[in-house]
Specification:
This protein has helices at residues 22-133, 138-149, 162-168, 172-175, 207-216, and strands spanning 155-160, 180-185, 194-198, 201-205. It is of the alpha+beta class and 231 residues long. Strands 2-1-3-4 form a four-stranded mixed sheet. A hairpin with a 2-residue loop joins strand 3 and strand 4. The termini are far apart. 11% of the residues are buried.
């Protein structure tokens, strides 16, 4: 092992060089500069990383916000669409309901008209049957016609079908004792009807007139046999 602590004689020194301590300072400065450069590079890397992280965070936040806004807009559009659809459906069903109500009312009116016409036809048949088997039903008709003349009329002419006159002729004096009646046969009148005349006043109690007055109260127009009866 060599001993580096011994004194070196001059004859052993082959060459010598002047040592410049400034080189040490330059080296130290270089190392310091390199350290600062590395620190600056690290700072730049850290700054770039921070910027990247910030951009990524901003992008993520923007993406979340964009999605939330898009979802809100979509929900609003869906709500508006459903609202418009609901309004359109309500209007459609309202119009359909009104049309249905109108059609139902028309059908009910038609049915009511048919029922009235059928009832009138049945009443006509019943009256004809009653008149054919019981001519005495004309007596209340004659009594009503005489009442329409008024109390001041004490005499009257009663015209009726010859068949009715044959049946009722013998009953009239006893039925209307307070009136002076003149009975006349009129073949132009149908059985079941009569015409009463007194001092220029005429009461038409023919079947046709009585029938027309009866059905008119029901809002109908109908003749007893399709043609007016002469009086």
């Amino acid at each position: 092992m060599r001993n580096y602590a011994r004194f070196i004689p001059g004859e052993e020194i082959q060459a010598a060089e002047l040592w410049n301590f400034g080189a040490i300072d330059t080296t130290a400065q270089l190392l310091e500069a390199q350290a600062k450069a590395r620190a600056s590079e690290q700072d730049q890397v850290d700054l770039a990383t921070a910027c990247q992280d910030s951009r990524q965070a901003g992008y993520a936040a923007g993406l979340i916000q964009g999605r939330a806004q898009a979802e809100a807009e979509l929900q609003q559009k869906m709500a508006d669409f459903l609202d418009n659809q609901a309004q359109a459906a309500a209007q459609h069903f309202g119009a359909l309901f009104a049309t249905t109500q109108s059609q139902l009312a028309a059908a009910q009116q038609t049915m009511a008209q048919g029922v009235l016409e059928l009832s009138c036809e049945l009443a006509r048949q019943v009256m004809r049957q009653e008149l054919s088997v019981n001519p005495n039903v004309l007596l209340p008709v004659i009594a009503e016609a005489l009442d329409m003349l008024g109390a001041e009329h004490r005499s009257a002419v009663v015209r009726m079908n010859p068949a009715d006159l044959e049946v009722l002729g013998g009953l009239m004096p006893s039925e209307f004792t307070g009136m002076a009646l003149t009975l006349r046969a009129d073949p132009a009148l149908q059985p079941g009807g009569c015409v009463v005349e007194s001092a220029g006043m005429v009461v038409d109690a023919t079947l046709q007139k009585r029938w027309q007055r009866a059905v008119a109260t029901l809002g109908l127009e109908s003749s007893w046999e399709g043609t007016s009866e002469p009086s």
